[in-house]
Design goal:
The complex is a heterotrimer. Chain A is an alpha+beta fold. Chain A contains 3 helices and 11 strands; from the N terminus they run H-E-E-H-E-E-E-E-H-E-E-E-E-E. In chain A, the strands form 4 sheets. In chain A, strands 1-2-5-4-3 form a 5-stranded mixed sheet. In chain A, strands 6-7 form a two-stranded parallel sheet. The longest helix of chain A has 12 residues. The termini of chain A are far apart. The model of chain A has no long low-confidence stretch (mean pLDDT 81). By secondary structure, chain B is an alpha+beta fold. Helices cover 47% and strands 13% of the residues of chain B. Chain B contains 15 helices and 8 strands. In chain B, strands 1-2-3 form a 3-stranded antiparallel sheet. A 3-stranded antiparallel sheet of chain B has the order 6-7-8. In chain B, strands 4-5 form a two-stranded antiparallel ribbon. The N and C termini of chain B lie far apart (55 Å). Classes of the chains: A alpha+beta, B alpha+beta, C mainly alpha. Chains in contact: A-B, B-C.
Chain lengths: 170, 372, 382
């Protein structure tokens, strides 16, 4: 099914819950309807988005985090991207891990790197970073730690540098 | 009589263990040799590629993609290049497209050779490993000729490939295809249809098709479960729609559909299909430019794209958000191994310790890609 | 080495030492030639040292052979540098390296047992060598309970390895040890039944008697004695593979599952002892296999078998070693060809396949013996 047809279908089904649709084929939702719509796209026979391909997120700046869900169907071979905006102060989202078990790890990763809080997640722990890591590395306001467990970091990021580089002391 | 308290033994498999294929750690609760429950821990190779990418220009990111799945670096380059090309709307020259398909499919052969070789090693057959490395060496020689590298190629670039393929190589690759086919048969005779090997892998780690889909498995793991999904066919990218090839799926020939042997045999058959594609591509390799002129200028794309390609281990997705600067605003890699390995905790209980090794081997993970 | 013989109060026919003494006239220059007990001790010591040397030399040779065989099978070259010919001194270099390594004992290990384990594993195999007759006259100790002694000494290795796994205080090592004990004890039964069949046919437990009974030409070899012997040979060979922890039965040290199995925590010379014990075990079981089924030192020509000239003796020693080495080669060949089987399959193979078949063969072979009195070929050939 074409992306715009999927958008139309979702719009006719959920109406106001769909906040925005874009030309590229994305759908922006209100987080309150995420669970409902996720179940719909999985169960609906014309959509049957049985595979949750990826969960990712982005820090849009200005205190907004965007969580991006990418669904695909193994039967119809079409794709759907769903976005949900949350505020940095309240980055709560419903978990999808009971609908797609793969969401378990993907949500943990999104939590680990961007700080989304997935409610009712069975095991919301850091997955890639160390368990006592501070901060969420992929947020735009993330500051590189000066040291980790006693290991000092002598990398600095200058204004015009593309990459952090080692600066000789003294 | 007083009831004795029985405790299960906790064993730490990894991060340094010969058959976790890298720094992967499984915490096993075992009852004797039987695995009662496992808990996977990843992140030992985490270097936050996605954060690094935010500080890199689009071309500078390329070498980092090599290091994701270092056994199939060409395909990683390919996935990234295709995503950025989609973003910039770059048309890849014909010759470059063909060269890409040739090296990508050769890389798939090389990667699967490592996968089946190390799988043999996991179940205790050492010789097939050396055989596969002998043949992989021939593929690496081609890569060396084409770009000077043997592991991290950085060859497929945005808009084409880094260097043109030498003229005389086409004939050599055709020779290799002829050489390789009997070698696959040899490997089949030595390992695939070996009675012990079949007994070690049949009905072990069965992933039913619905489960494989729900866990987001892809590549040979998904196809091993009998789901016919291959992005080269389903959402054709590059020029894959021009080639004739089959998508092998697991049929449960020696056990249940979706067992370790099915995943293994899918890889073996995929190699043959890849050789088929290489053969066709080499035959119709056109002359012309090998990189698009547009891609040689500094790249400042704007927009957002998610594109997945079929890597050797499954569906590799690149999600790029670009805001018109020379560095991406956000770059996310959907790595196939990450999704494939998360099924381990669900399928391992009840198996023996030796089976756990066989299951991990059949999922064929590369930690560089899982941890990114 | 002489110790168990003294203990059992069995006349150890240290024949080959006595012959050497007779040939070299060394007895004349020995200070204690009048003192029988001292002479006896001296002879026993010489025999022990000789056996140890044979075993170590064979171990070094077998490791090199294994490397070359595996290299040949895997399209490689194997060791090529040390020594002029095909890296033939590579294992000596390796042994020196191992000897120079730090003697490392983990802090949490049970030290006395940890130290004792490799010695026990090694000495078990060494003791099993005692009853192998290299020739009609050259046998370190021709015990009248030889086969029984062989089986029991060979079983000592299990103690050593279990102690190693237990004392290492490492879960992987413990797994390896548990696997080994389960495997070894199970495979002792079909192995014992094979030995029992031979004993029933020969009517003696002495290993030399088994050889002598087969020294009347090729057709007198037990493998040709009745059709069940072929099956028993295959069972014996399979069981010895399991006893030696060779692939496909190498579960106790399955490197892809248990890191290194029972010797995970061992390094240096202690590890080398386990290693040497494994290769010596391969040799001793191959010798035993050759003795039980292929006539041992018998060349297959009764004229040579009966002769008492130096040439005949050398031929006979060569015959035994050739047979044993061929079997060692088959063991290596299997190792580099087959995948490893799983623990439950190991047990299934033993208890549900080998055991019933070996029992049947034991019964059938003895009935056959009763009917034909071992003269099957003579009967049918007239």
């Amino acid at each position: 099914m074409e992306a715009n047809k999927i958008q139309e279908m979702l719009q006719s089904q959920f109406g106001a819950a769909i906040q925005e649709v874009t030309q590229e084929g994305w759908v922006k939702l209100d987080r309150g309807h995420l669970l409902e719509i996720a179940q719909f796209v999985k169960k609906q026979n014309d959509l049957s988005m049985d595979m949750l391909h990826c969960i990712t997120g982005v820090d849009l700046g200005g205190g907004t985090l965007e969580c991006i869900y990418i669904f695909t169907s193994t039967t119809h071979k079409h794709w759907l991207t769903v976005k949900v905006d949350v505020k940095v102060e309240d980055p709560k989202l419903p978990t999808l891990s009971h609908i797609w078990p793969t969401a378990n790890w993907h949500e943990r990763e999104a939590f680990d790197l961007l700080g989304f809080m997935f409610t009712d997640h069975p095991n919301l722990k850091r997955i890639l970073c160390h368990e006592d890591w501070v901060g969420y590395p992929l947020r735009k306001d993330y500051e590189f730690p000066k040291e980790f467990e006693g290991i000092k970091r002598d990398l600095v990021l200058e204004e015009d540098d593309v990459m952090p580089r080692t600066v000789k002391k003294g | 009589m007083e009831q004795k308290k029985v405790e299960e033994m906790l064993i730490n498999m990894g991060p340094q263990h010969p058959s976790t294929h890298g720094v992967f750690r499984v915490l096993i609760e075992s009852d004797g040799e039987t695995v009662a429950r496992t808990e996977s821990h990843i992140g030992y190779l985490h270097r936050c590629f996605e954060k690094i990418a935010e500080n890199m220009t689009y071309l500078q990111i390329h070498p980092y993609t090599d290091r994701l799945d270092y056994l199939a670096a060409m395909l990683m380059n390919f996935g990234y290049a295709v995503a950025i090309e989609k973003l910039l709307d770059i048309q890849v020259p014909e010759r470059a497209s063909y060269i890409r398909v040739i090296v990508a499919e050769l890389q798939r052969v090389a990667s699967h050779l490592v996968a089946v070789g190390t799988y043999g090693l996991d179940v205790g057959a050492i010789t097939p490993f050396l055989y596969t490395f002998r043949d992989r060496e021939k593929v690496l020689k081609f890569f060396e000729r084409v770009c000077g590298q043997r592991l991290n190629y950085n060859y497929i670039r945005i808009g084409g490939v880094a260097y043109d393929m030498p003229q005389e190589m086409a004939a050599d690759i055709s020779d290799f295809v002829v050489y390789m086919r009997p070698k696959i048969k040899e490997l089949n005779d030595l390992l695939t249809y070996n009675g012990i090997f079949i007994r070690r892998t049949a009905n072990i780690g069965v992933i039913p098709p619905e489960m494989a889909v729900q866990y987001g498995c892809s590549g040979p793991v998904l196809r091993g479960s009998g789901v016919k999904r291959d992005l080269r066919r389903d959402t054709p990218y590059s020029i894959y729609n021009r080639f004739d090839f089959d998508i092998p799926v697991g049929k449960g020939e020696v056990g249940h559909v979706g067992d370790c042997w099915d995943r293994y045999i899918v890889r073996m058959r995929e190699m043959e299909e890849s050789l088929k594609i290489v053969e066709q591509a080499v035959k119709s390799l056109p002359a012309g430019d090998y990189i698009d002129a547009k891609a040689k200028k500094p790249l400042r794309p704007k927009g957002e794209v998610y594109h997945a390609v079929e890597s050797a281990r499954g569906e590799l997705g690149f999600h790029v958000i670009a805001n018109g600067k020379n560095v991406p605003y956000r770059l996310k890699v959907r790595s196939p191994s990450f999704s494939n390995i998360c099924i381990l905790d669900a399928i391992s209980p009840g198996h023996l310790l030796a089976d756990l090794v066989a299951i991990i081997g059949s999922l064929d993970i590369v930690m560089g890609e899982v941890d990114r | 080495m002489g110790f168990p013989c003294l203990l059992l109060e069995i006349d150890p026919s240290l024949g080959f030492i006595k012959r050497i003494i007779a040939w070299t006239a060394i007895e004349e220059i020995l200070p204690f030639k009048q003192n029988g007990w001292l002479l006896y001790l001296f002879l026993a010591l010489v025999a022990a040292v000789l056996l140890l040397v044979i075993m170590c030399v064979f171990g070094l040779f077998a490791v090199w052979l294994e490397r070359k065989v595996s290299a040949y099978m895997q399209c490689r070259l194997g060791p090529m540098e040390v020594g002029r010919y095909q890296g033939c001194l590579q294992t000596i270099a390796d042994a020196l390296k191992l000897a120079a390594k730090e003697d490392f004992i983990p802090k949490a290990a049970d030290m006395p047992i940890f130290i004792l384990a490799p010695i026990l594993a090694f000495s078990g195999i060494l003791l099993a060598f005692l009853v192998i007759p290299f020739d009609r006259y050259w046998v370190p100790a021709d015990l009248n309970v030889g086969l029984f002694y062989f089986a029991s000494m060979f079983g000592i290795e299990a103690f050593g390895i279990f102690m190693a796994g237990w004392a290492s205080n490492n879960k992987w090592a413990l797994f390896g040890a548990m696997r080994l004990v389960a495997q070894l004890i199970s495979y002792e039964i079909p192995l014992g039944l094979c030995l029992l069949t031979i004993v029933a046919i020969t009517g003696s437990l002495s290993v030399q008697d088994v050889c002598l009974a087969q020294s009347h030409g090729v057709l007198s070899w037990y493998i040709f004695r009745n059709p069940f012997m072929w099956i028993l040979f295959l069972i014996f060979f399979t069981a010895t593979l399991a006893e030696c922890k060779r692939a496909p039965f190498d579960l106790p040290e399955a490197e892809s599952e248990l890191v290194a199995g029972f010797h995970t925590e061992y390094s240096g010379m202690r590890f080398a002892m386990f290693f040497l014990a494994e290769y010596a075990a391969m040799y001793v079981v191959s010798c035993m296999c050759a003795i039980l089924f292929f006539g041992g030192w018998s060349t297959g020509i009764s004229l040579i078998d009966r002769a008492d000239t130096p040439l005949a003796i050398i031929l006979r020693i060569l015959a035994l070693n050739l047979k044993a080495l061929s079997l060692v080669f088959v063991q290596m060949w299997l190792r580099w060809t087959l995948p490893r089987i799983r623990l439950d399959q190991v047990m299934y193979c033993c208890l549900k396949v080998l055991l019933p078949i070996s029992m049947f063969c034991f019964l059938a072979a003895t009935v056959w013996e009763f009917l034909f009195r071992g003269h099957f070929f003579r009967t049918i050939l007239g």
